[in-house]
Amino acid sequence: MNQYLAKIRTINKIDYNTPILVPSFSSKGFPHVKELHNYLKGKLTEVSLISSYDLHYGYLDPDQIYESDILIVDSGGYERNKEHDISDIYNSLYIAKEWNESLYENQVGMLHPFTDILLVNYDYQEGYPLNQQVQFAQNHFQKYPDFASDFLCKPTSNNGFFIDVDNLIQSIDLLFSFDVVGFTEKELGNSIYERATNIYRIRKALTGSGLATPIHIFGCIDPLSIILYFLCGADIFDGLSWLRFSFKDYIPTYLNHHALNHGLWDRPDNEVKIIGYLENLEVLSQLKNQLIAFAKSLDWEELHLKPREIQEIKRILASIINSYE
Protein backbone atom coordinates (compact mmCIF):
# COMPACT_ATOMS: atom_id res chain seq x y z
CA MET A 1 0.00 0.00 0.00
CA ASN A 2 1.27 3.49 -0.88
CA GLN A 3 1.55 5.41 2.39
CA TYR A 4 2.83 8.42 0.45
CA LEU A 5 0.44 10.63 -1.50
CA ALA A 6 2.48 10.91 -4.70
CA LYS A 7 0.14 10.21 -7.58
CA ILE A 8 -0.45 11.10 -11.21
CA ARG A 9 -3.52 13.35 -11.27
CA THR A 10 -5.32 15.17 -14.06
CA ILE A 11 -6.30 18.77 -14.75
CA ASN A 12 -9.74 17.76 -15.97
CA LYS A 13 -10.64 20.87 -17.98
CA ILE A 14 -7.64 20.46 -20.28
CA ASP A 15 -7.16 16.70 -19.77
CA TYR A 16 -3.50 17.08 -18.83
CA ASN A 17 -1.66 14.86 -16.36
CA THR A 18 0.53 15.94 -13.47
CA PRO A 19 3.17 16.29 -12.12
CA ILE A 20 3.96 19.56 -13.87
CA LEU A 21 7.14 21.55 -13.20
CA VAL A 22 6.70 25.10 -14.42
CA PRO A 23 9.44 27.56 -15.40
CA SER A 24 8.12 30.98 -14.43
CA PHE A 25 8.91 34.45 -15.73
CA SER A 26 8.53 37.77 -13.92
CA SER A 27 9.70 41.35 -14.24
CA LYS A 28 10.22 41.38 -10.46
CA GLY A 29 13.95 40.86 -10.13
CA PHE A 30 14.31 40.32 -13.90
CA PRO A 31 13.97 43.70 -15.64
CA HIS A 32 14.94 42.21 -19.01
CA VAL A 33 12.29 39.50 -18.78
CA LYS A 34 10.99 40.18 -22.32
CA GLU A 35 14.36 39.43 -23.92
CA LEU A 36 14.84 36.46 -21.62
CA HIS A 37 11.42 35.00 -22.44
CA ASN A 38 11.78 35.57 -26.18
CA TYR A 39 15.16 33.85 -26.17
CA LEU A 40 13.98 30.82 -24.20
CA LYS A 41 10.42 30.46 -25.49
CA GLY A 42 11.38 27.84 -28.06
CA LYS A 43 12.49 25.56 -25.21
CA LEU A 44 9.23 25.95 -23.26
CA THR A 45 7.46 23.10 -24.99
CA GLU A 46 5.28 21.81 -22.16
CA VAL A 47 4.39 24.63 -19.79
CA SER A 48 5.32 28.14 -18.71
CA LEU A 49 3.98 30.75 -16.30
CA ILE A 50 3.70 34.47 -16.93
CA SER A 51 2.06 37.33 -15.07
CA SER A 52 -0.94 39.34 -16.20
CA TYR A 53 0.83 42.35 -14.60
CA ASP A 54 3.80 41.91 -16.93
CA LEU A 55 1.52 41.62 -19.94
CA HIS A 56 -0.30 44.81 -18.99
CA TYR A 57 2.89 46.84 -18.62
CA GLY A 58 4.53 45.48 -21.76
CA TYR A 59 7.25 43.51 -19.97
CA LEU A 60 6.29 40.57 -22.18
CA ASP A 61 5.35 40.43 -25.84
CA PRO A 62 1.66 39.32 -25.95
CA ASP A 63 2.19 37.66 -29.33
CA GLN A 64 5.02 35.47 -28.02
CA ILE A 65 3.44 33.88 -24.93
CA TYR A 66 1.60 30.91 -26.46
CA GLU A 67 4.60 28.69 -27.18
CA SER A 68 4.00 25.96 -24.57
CA ASP A 69 1.25 23.33 -24.45
CA ILE A 70 -0.01 24.90 -21.23
CA LEU A 71 0.20 28.59 -20.38
CA ILE A 72 -0.37 29.51 -16.74
CA VAL A 73 -1.42 33.14 -16.39
CA ASP A 74 -0.80 34.41 -12.87
CA SER A 75 -2.78 37.10 -11.10
CA GLY A 76 -0.06 39.74 -10.86
CA GLY A 77 -0.11 39.72 -7.07
CA TYR A 78 3.56 38.74 -6.85
CA GLU A 79 4.61 41.72 -8.97
CA ARG A 80 2.26 44.07 -7.10
CA ASN A 81 3.46 43.11 -3.60
CA LYS A 82 6.69 44.17 -1.91
CA GLU A 83 7.19 40.71 -0.43
CA HIS A 84 9.63 38.31 -2.06
CA ASP A 85 9.48 34.53 -2.39
CA ILE A 86 11.55 32.08 -0.37
CA SER A 87 14.18 31.60 -3.08
CA ASP A 88 14.93 35.31 -3.54
CA ILE A 89 18.59 35.87 -2.64
CA TYR A 90 18.57 39.67 -2.41
CA ASN A 91 15.18 40.70 -0.96
CA SER A 92 15.92 44.17 -2.36
CA LEU A 93 13.70 47.23 -2.46
CA TYR A 94 10.96 46.83 -5.03
CA ILE A 95 8.56 49.51 -6.23
CA ALA A 96 5.51 48.21 -8.07
CA LYS A 97 3.25 50.05 -10.46
CA GLU A 98 -0.49 50.35 -10.03
CA TRP A 99 -2.31 47.02 -10.08
CA ASN A 100 -5.95 46.33 -9.33
CA GLU A 101 -8.80 44.01 -10.26
CA SER A 102 -9.95 46.17 -13.17
CA LEU A 103 -6.50 46.17 -14.79
CA TYR A 104 -6.28 42.43 -14.25
CA GLU A 105 -9.71 41.80 -15.81
CA ASN A 106 -8.85 43.96 -18.82
CA GLN A 107 -5.65 42.06 -19.41
CA VAL A 108 -7.20 38.61 -19.01
CA GLY A 109 -9.90 39.65 -21.47
CA MET A 110 -7.22 40.03 -24.13
CA LEU A 111 -5.93 36.45 -23.82
CA HIS A 112 -6.60 34.03 -26.65
CA PRO A 113 -7.12 30.27 -26.35
CA PHE A 114 -4.31 29.54 -28.80
CA THR A 115 -3.03 26.97 -26.29
CA ASP A 116 -4.44 25.46 -23.10
CA ILE A 117 -4.61 28.24 -20.51
CA LEU A 118 -4.66 27.69 -16.76
CA LEU A 119 -5.89 30.96 -15.27
CA VAL A 120 -5.18 32.11 -11.71
CA ASN A 121 -7.84 34.21 -10.00
CA TYR A 122 -7.18 37.79 -8.86
CA ASP A 123 -5.08 37.97 -5.69
CA TYR A 124 -6.66 40.52 -3.34
CA GLN A 125 -4.42 42.35 -0.88
CA GLU A 126 -7.17 42.23 1.73
CA GLY A 127 -7.90 39.07 3.65
CA TYR A 128 -11.31 37.49 3.05
CA PRO A 129 -13.02 34.44 4.59
CA LEU A 130 -12.56 31.31 2.52
CA ASN A 131 -16.18 31.19 1.34
CA GLN A 132 -15.85 34.75 -0.01
CA GLN A 133 -12.55 33.94 -1.72
CA VAL A 134 -14.24 30.99 -3.38
CA GLN A 135 -17.24 33.05 -4.46
CA PHE A 136 -15.04 35.81 -5.93
CA ALA A 137 -13.00 33.22 -7.84
CA GLN A 138 -16.05 31.35 -9.13
CA ASN A 139 -17.59 34.60 -10.38
CA HIS A 140 -14.35 35.41 -12.13
CA PHE A 141 -13.75 32.03 -13.74
CA GLN A 142 -17.34 31.94 -15.09
CA LYS A 143 -16.34 34.80 -17.40
CA TYR A 144 -13.65 32.66 -19.05
CA PRO A 145 -15.16 29.24 -19.75
CA ASP A 146 -12.42 28.36 -22.25
CA PHE A 147 -9.73 28.47 -19.55
CA ALA A 148 -8.99 26.01 -16.77
CA SER A 149 -9.31 27.45 -13.27
CA ASP A 150 -6.46 27.65 -10.75
CA PHE A 151 -7.85 28.88 -7.42
CA LEU A 152 -5.15 30.65 -5.41
CA CYS A 153 -6.16 30.27 -1.76
CA LYS A 154 -4.92 33.06 0.52
CA PRO A 155 -4.81 33.76 4.28
CA THR A 156 -8.22 34.81 5.56
CA SER A 157 -7.00 37.58 7.87
CA ASN A 158 -5.25 40.86 7.07
CA ASN A 159 -2.93 40.11 9.98
CA GLY A 160 -2.32 36.49 9.02
CA PHE A 161 0.81 35.37 7.21
CA PHE A 162 -0.25 31.75 6.78
CA ILE A 163 -3.16 29.70 5.46
CA ASP A 164 -5.57 28.57 8.20
CA VAL A 165 -5.30 24.91 7.28
CA ASP A 166 -7.71 23.73 9.99
CA ASN A 167 -10.43 26.01 8.62
CA LEU A 168 -9.60 25.01 5.04
CA ILE A 169 -9.93 21.32 5.83
CA GLN A 170 -13.27 21.87 7.55
CA SER A 171 -14.51 23.68 4.42
CA ILE A 172 -12.78 21.51 1.82
CA ASP A 173 -16.00 20.84 -0.10
CA LEU A 174 -16.03 24.51 -1.14
CA LEU A 175 -13.20 23.72 -3.55
CA PHE A 176 -15.10 21.25 -5.73
CA SER A 177 -15.59 23.60 -8.71
CA PHE A 178 -11.92 24.38 -9.39
CA ASP A 179 -9.65 22.50 -11.78
CA VAL A 180 -6.59 23.25 -9.62
CA VAL A 181 -6.18 24.52 -6.05
CA GLY A 182 -3.07 26.61 -5.34
CA PHE A 183 -1.10 27.98 -2.41
CA THR A 184 2.05 30.08 -2.24
CA GLU A 185 4.79 28.07 -0.59
CA LYS A 186 5.62 30.74 1.98
CA GLU A 187 1.98 30.94 3.15
CA LEU A 188 1.81 27.23 3.98
CA GLY A 189 4.01 27.47 7.05
CA ASN A 190 7.14 28.74 8.74
CA SER A 191 9.36 25.71 8.05
CA ILE A 192 9.80 23.04 5.40
CA TYR A 193 8.32 20.52 7.82
CA GLU A 194 5.25 22.65 8.51
CA ARG A 195 4.69 23.29 4.81
CA ALA A 196 5.04 19.60 3.94
CA THR A 197 2.68 18.69 6.78
CA ASN A 198 0.03 21.13 5.60
CA ILE A 199 0.25 19.91 2.01
CA TYR A 200 -0.21 16.35 3.30
CA ARG A 201 -3.23 17.37 5.39
CA ILE A 202 -4.85 19.27 2.52
CA ARG A 203 -4.36 16.35 0.14
CA LYS A 204 -5.85 13.92 2.67
CA ALA A 205 -8.87 16.21 3.08
CA LEU A 206 -9.38 16.52 -0.67
CA THR A 207 -9.16 12.75 -1.08
CA GLY A 208 -11.56 12.23 1.80
CA SER A 209 -14.10 14.40 0.00
CA GLY A 210 -13.67 12.47 -3.22
CA LEU A 211 -11.65 15.22 -4.91
CA ALA A 212 -8.52 14.43 -6.94
CA THR A 213 -7.93 18.13 -7.65
CA PRO A 214 -4.25 18.86 -8.36
CA ILE A 215 -2.47 21.07 -5.82
CA HIS A 216 -0.31 23.90 -7.20
CA ILE A 217 2.55 25.22 -5.04
CA PHE A 218 3.41 28.74 -6.20
CA GLY A 219 6.99 29.92 -5.76
CA CYS A 220 8.58 26.47 -5.40
CA ILE A 221 10.82 25.08 -8.13
CA ASP A 222 13.66 23.75 -5.93
CA PRO A 223 14.20 20.08 -6.89
CA LEU A 224 14.45 18.61 -3.37
CA SER A 225 11.46 20.60 -2.12
CA ILE A 226 9.47 19.45 -5.15
CA ILE A 227 10.21 15.81 -4.34
CA LEU A 228 9.16 16.23 -0.70
CA TYR A 229 5.97 18.12 -1.52
CA PHE A 230 5.11 15.69 -4.32
CA LEU A 231 5.34 12.80 -1.87
CA CYS A 232 2.97 14.76 0.38
CA GLY A 233 0.39 15.13 -2.39
CA ALA A 234 1.25 18.29 -4.37
CA ASP A 235 1.25 18.18 -8.16
CA ILE A 236 2.20 21.47 -9.87
CA PHE A 237 5.24 23.54 -8.98
CA ASP A 238 6.42 26.87 -10.33
CA GLY A 239 9.02 29.41 -9.39
CA LEU A 240 11.82 31.74 -10.43
CA SER A 241 14.81 30.07 -8.77
CA TRP A 242 15.63 28.29 -12.04
CA LEU A 243 16.69 31.78 -13.23
CA ARG A 244 18.71 32.45 -10.06
CA PHE A 245 20.67 29.24 -9.53
CA SER A 246 22.07 26.20 -11.28
CA PHE A 247 20.17 23.00 -10.45
CA LYS A 248 22.81 20.46 -11.44
CA ASP A 249 22.80 17.48 -9.03
CA TYR A 250 19.67 18.99 -7.38
CA ILE A 251 21.86 21.46 -5.46
CA PRO A 252 21.01 25.09 -6.30
CA THR A 253 24.31 26.92 -6.73
CA TYR A 254 25.20 30.50 -7.57
CA LEU A 255 26.09 30.85 -11.25
CA ASN A 256 29.71 31.89 -10.57
CA HIS A 257 30.17 28.71 -8.58
CA HIS A 258 28.57 26.75 -11.39
CA ALA A 259 30.98 28.30 -13.91
CA LEU A 260 34.00 27.37 -11.79
CA ASN A 261 32.76 23.88 -11.02
CA HIS A 262 31.84 22.94 -14.59
CA GLY A 263 34.68 24.45 -16.60
CA LEU A 264 32.80 27.50 -17.85
CA TRP A 265 35.12 30.01 -16.17
CA ASP A 266 36.27 31.52 -19.46
CA ARG A 267 32.76 32.20 -20.73
CA PRO A 268 31.07 35.63 -20.43
CA ASP A 269 28.65 35.90 -17.50
CA ASN A 270 25.59 36.23 -19.74
CA GLU A 271 26.59 33.09 -21.63
CA VAL A 272 27.03 31.18 -18.35
CA LYS A 273 23.53 32.30 -17.34
CA ILE A 274 21.97 31.10 -20.59
CA ILE A 275 23.79 27.76 -20.35
CA GLY A 276 22.50 27.45 -16.79
CA TYR A 277 18.91 28.23 -17.79
CA LEU A 278 18.95 25.61 -20.54
CA GLU A 279 20.51 23.02 -18.24
CA ASN A 280 17.89 23.80 -15.58
CA LEU A 281 15.07 23.20 -18.05
CA GLU A 282 16.59 19.80 -18.79
CA VAL A 283 16.92 19.04 -15.06
CA LEU A 284 13.24 19.91 -14.52
CA SER A 285 12.22 17.70 -17.44
CA GLN A 286 14.24 14.78 -16.05
CA LEU A 287 12.85 15.35 -12.57
CA LYS A 288 9.29 15.23 -13.88
CA ASN A 289 9.98 11.84 -15.48
CA GLN A 290 11.52 10.60 -12.24
CA LEU A 291 8.48 11.69 -10.23
CA ILE A 292 6.20 9.87 -12.65
CA ALA A 293 8.35 6.75 -12.43
CA PHE A 294 8.27 6.87 -8.62
CA ALA A 295 4.49 7.36 -8.54
CA LYS A 296 4.12 4.20 -10.63
CA SER A 297 6.74 2.03 -8.92
CA LEU A 298 7.30 3.51 -5.41
CA ASP A 299 10.96 2.74 -6.03
CA TRP A 300 13.19 5.34 -4.36
CA GLU A 301 15.99 4.63 -6.83
CA GLU A 302 13.84 6.32 -9.50
CA LEU A 303 14.39 9.67 -7.75
CA HIS A 304 18.20 9.54 -8.10
CA LEU A 305 18.77 11.02 -4.64
CA LYS A 306 21.81 10.77 -2.42
CA PRO A 307 21.47 8.46 0.63
CA ARG A 308 21.43 11.40 3.05
CA GLU A 309 18.67 13.12 1.05
CA ILE A 310 16.54 9.97 1.08
CA GLN A 311 17.14 9.59 4.80
CA GLU A 312 16.00 13.11 5.62
CA ILE A 313 12.93 13.01 3.36
CA LYS A 314 11.89 9.66 4.84
CA ARG A 315 12.30 11.07 8.36
CA ILE A 316 10.01 13.98 7.51
CA LEU A 317 7.42 11.74 5.89
CA ALA A 318 7.47 9.25 8.76
CA SER A 319 6.83 12.02 11.27
CA ILE A 320 3.95 13.44 9.23
CA ILE A 321 2.35 10.06 8.58
CA ASN A 322 2.64 9.03 12.24
CA SER A 323 0.92 12.26 13.26
CA TYR A 324 -1.95 12.20 10.77
CA GLU A 325 -2.71 8.61 9.82
Q: What features would you highlight for this structure?
A:
alpha/beta, 11 helices, two-stranded antiparallel ribbon, globular
Q: Would you give an account of this structure?
A:
The chain is an alpha/beta fold and 325 residues long. The protein has one domain: Queuine tRNA-ribosyltransferase-like (TIM Barrel), CATH 3.20.20. It has eleven helices and ten strands. The strands form two sheets. An eight-stranded parallel beta sheet has the order 3-10-9-8-7-6-5-4. The protein has a two-stranded antiparallel sheet with strand order 1-2. Helix 9 crosses helix 10. The longest helix has 29 residues. 43% of the residues are buried.
Write a compact overview of the structure shown:
The chain has 325 residues and is an alpha/beta fold. The chain is 38% helix and 13% strand.
Span from first to last CA? 13 Å
CATH topology: TIM Barrel
Strand order, main sheet: write it out. 3-10-9-8-7-6-5-4
Alpha-carbon Rg, integer: 19 Å
Which percent band covers the strand fraction? 5-15%
Largest sheet: 8 strands, parallel
Q: CATH H level: which superfamily?
A: Queuine tRNA-ribosyltransferase-like
The tally of strands reads 10
Structural class, please?
A: alpha/beta
Oligomer: single chain
In terms of per-residue confidence, which ranges show pLDDT below 50 for 5 or more consecutive residues? none
What would CATH call the architecture?
Answer: Alpha-Beta Barrel
Mean pLDDT: 91
Domain count: the total is 1
CATH C-level name: Alpha Beta
The ordered H/E elements are EEEHEHEHHEHEHEHEHEHHH
Number of helices: 11
Overall geometry comes to globular
- Helical residues, percent: 25-40%
